[in-house]
Amino acid sequence: MKNKTFFIVLVVALFVFVISTFSYFAVTGNALRYASEPGDGKKMSFLCKFSVDFCDCTPSRWCINSNSYAWKGQNCVVKTAFCASGQICSNGYCETPAPANSCTDSDRGINYTVRGTVNTTFTSVNGTAYNSYTDYCQSTSMLREYYCNGVYVADQQNVNCQYGCSNGACSITQPKPDLIVQSASAYNFLNNTMILANIKNIGGSTAGQSTTRIHISSIGVSRYLLTPQIVSGGVVQVSANFSLLTSGGVNITADFFNNVTESNEANNFYINYTLLRP
To answer: Alpha helix (H) ranges present in the chain?
Structure first.
């Protein structure tokens, strides 16, 4: 009899507890559930409306498109947001994509006549490596040309430029010569004065035969001197004799008759008023 009474009391007490709990939630309208919030991706607990989402208040995030996402917020109300600039949505979370392996060449491949820069990006378990290589002249005639050899590999080759190398590219036309009067000197002996002039070719190709004029302004006398061909960077000395000179300006002109087509036609002159002294 006592056992039966105890069992009845236990059942009544359990029933009262269930009814009381249900009544509490029914009155307060709250039940503890979980949902995912933006930020560090951790689950955050909050109270959901019992009467609304008793059956569905589970954590949930999803991508709307490549740069926005949605999640269930408090009371399981759907919320949306955009990813930051440069990020993409993946499985409901914004991520910064690893840069794709790449190789780009500003002069579009092997192009000897245009200075280019190759940029490469390569991602591995050790991180992402960025490299840059720019075409350059190893000498006046040798070019180091960089280009892409594959998806992310930079390669190189040495090129012997026919018309010379300048500013990281092969010249496309033959360079011209350029004659100047590099220096001059005068020497007196007996009753004569000898004037010597050094004619230099500072251009990029050989200068053909030309004429150098040495003019003495004080007496109005000129000498025209046949000047042989001069290779690029070469120097030839010419000389002329005059009656003894003690004063007067010396005017020397390289390629006086413009026999040579030069890259600069305005630098052939040399004038010195102190070369001749008593």
So the answer is: 2-28, 50-53
Q: What is the CATH number of domain 179-272?
A: 2.60.40.10
pLDDT in tens, 75-133: 677 888 889 887 888 888 888 776 678 899 999 899 999 999 999 998 876 778 899 99
Q: What share of the chain is helix, strand, coil (3-state, %, to 5)?
A: 10, 45, 40
Single-letter code of the amino acid located at 235: V
Neighbour-count burial of 40, counting CB atoms closer than 10 A to its CB (0-12 exposed, 13-18 middle, 19+ buried): exposed
- Using CA atoms, how far residue 166 sits from 113, 273, 275, in Å, is 10, 38, 37
Query: For the chain, which residues make up each domain, given as ranges?
Result: 2-95, 102-170, 179-272
What 3-state DSSP class applies to 246? Answer: coil
- Mapping DSSP to helix (H, G, I), strand (E, B) and coil, where does residue 17 land? helix
**Structure tokens belonging to residue 32:** 């503890």
- pLDDT < 50 stretches in the chain: 22-55
Answering whether pTM is above 0.90, one says no
DSSP string, 30-56: EEEEEEE-SSS--EEEEEEEHHHHSS-
Alpha-carbon span 115 to 183, nearest angstrom:
36
Q: Please name every residue paired with 192 in a beta bridge, in sequence order, or none if there are none.
A: 189, 243
Helix-then-strand count for the chain, H and E: 2, 22
Distances from the Cα of 255 to the Cα of 179, 213, 250, 265, angstroms: 7, 8, 16, 9
Q: Which DSSP string do the residues of 84-119 spell out, in sequence order?
A: PTT-EEETTEEE-PPPPPEEEETT-SS-TTS--EEE
Tell which residue, 158, 152, 66, 146, has the closest CA to residue 109. 146
